[in-house]
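Hi F.,

I've been meaning to write this up properly since the lab meeting, where we talked about keeping a consistent format for the predictions we share between groups. The idea is simple: the sequence comes first, exactly as it goes in, then the structure tokens exactly as they come out, then a line or two of notes. No screenshots and no reformatting. I'm using this chain as the first example so we have something concrete to point to.
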Amino acid sequence: MPPSQGSAHPLRLLGVYAALLAVIYALVFFTGDKSPTPKLGIDLQGGTRVTLSARTPDGSKPSQDSLKKAQDIIENRVNGLGVGGSEVVIDGDNIVITVPGDDGQQARALATTAKLYIRPVLQAVPAAGRGATPQTAPGTQPAPAAQPTTPETTQPAAPETTEPAPAPQQRVFPAQQPTQPPTNPGLEPTEESTKEIQAAKALRQSTDQSVQQAALATMDCGKADPLAGNDDPALPLVTCSTDGTEVFLLDKSRIDGQEIKDATSGLNQQQARHEVYLDFKSGGSDAWASLTGEYVYKRVAFVLDSKVVSAPVVQQGPQQGGRTQISGNFTATSAKELANTLKYGSLPLSFQTSEAETVSATLGLSSLKAGLLAGAVGLLVVLLYCLLYYRMLGFVTGLSLVASGFAVYGIMVLLGRWIGFTLDLAGIAGLIIGIGMTADSFVVFFERIKDEMREGRSFRSAAPRGWQRARRTILSGNAVSFIAAAVLYILAVGQVKGFAFTLGLTTILDVVVVFLVTSPLVLLASRTAFWSKPSVNGLGAIQQVARERKAAEAALGKA
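Output, unedited:
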């Protein structure tokens, strides 16, 4: 029997879905780390916890408002980096960060104070051999600088070292050394920290030129900086570059990091290096134009948490438009982290980080296996019921759910790889509920087919008519579910966000599967003689009802 008109249409839809699955799994197996396993949350695989102890310049107790603001900023940084499944909680006067996996460096990076100041460079000497005559910044260039790629580009004065920095630049302590025991056992930790900050300020932020020169000569860039994030922007500063190769004497701050409107990262194709791009607010834009107009062919330093990230030479000025860039020994990851940190603002407090400690899984893989087993048993029971009640249509339900499961799994793997999404038990619950909603869509479709057949139409005629009536209902139901998931995601915190995210994702996939898999399969089945048999499709009782109605109407017509 030749195919009816439009028989290729369902095949095209099935081909589109097959192509989507092929693309998803090609990305899974041939990109990134090529691992076909999703990232698991803290409750399933454990994680790493870092405790942050607040440090105030005067040693006073941090206010709860400051701690709450710091918690909010750190949570924004977590969301900006896509570190899914992380927890940020206030514990007394401390903040505790827990991230999935065993990488404590990631948790420490989130705690960077991120106080950015732009200061003119008064003097710069190499970190090694500081006995040499200092190189004064005004009017000099330590090394030839490359030409700017755009009118507002500020190029670095000297080439960076070819070796990668031992740690990313945007850290509270560059080398992330463990907390050192107090040098004076008679003092409390807060008193010891306060004493170190005050001593560092007296030496490195003095307005006396002789003291400044002494600080330049004695500055040790290999030690943890007690002044990190606590320098006074209204005073000069002696500090190191993040890679430890130069020691700087800097003037008072001219631009505060609070004037940054947005920060992004990217690869400079011409220089073959990663950079951080800054957009200033209106006040910062005016200050930047004034600074670059005053310091043409002189160096200005971008100082993050009392360390010089970059000290370029201003090639031209004044630079209008309120946009500039920070260059340095950045990797793609560290540039993204710094841009994310600057975008959400600096913390109101500086923190001292503890050593990372491992947190065991709260529920463990055994609970995950038990949950997956329970879900598989429930799914099997649903499939058996569909096969008994819908016959052939139940078989289509099983194929559609399998197709949906393959897509969901592949997307979970890719989301974990691309945005750091981690799958916890709350997320698994959202997936299971979403799959159940997908089965509900099938039921709506199948019942519409039955309604059409009760009116006397054949299975072949009822299938496309039933789909026309069902798809609007399916779209409306899924739209309501998606809106509910979106609202829940916006308002919820913690693991509830994971539940809402997976629920919304499976709701979208429900629409895709029903349109690209279920409907084409049913339409194809309705066009074959075998699947149209009442004994196969289970619709014989419905056809008998239609015949009885037709006979009753005929009898009434004769009467």
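Notes:
The longest helix spans residues 459-491.
Residues 1-8, 129-183 have pLDDT under 50 and may be disordered.

If this format works for you, I'll send the rest the same way.

G.
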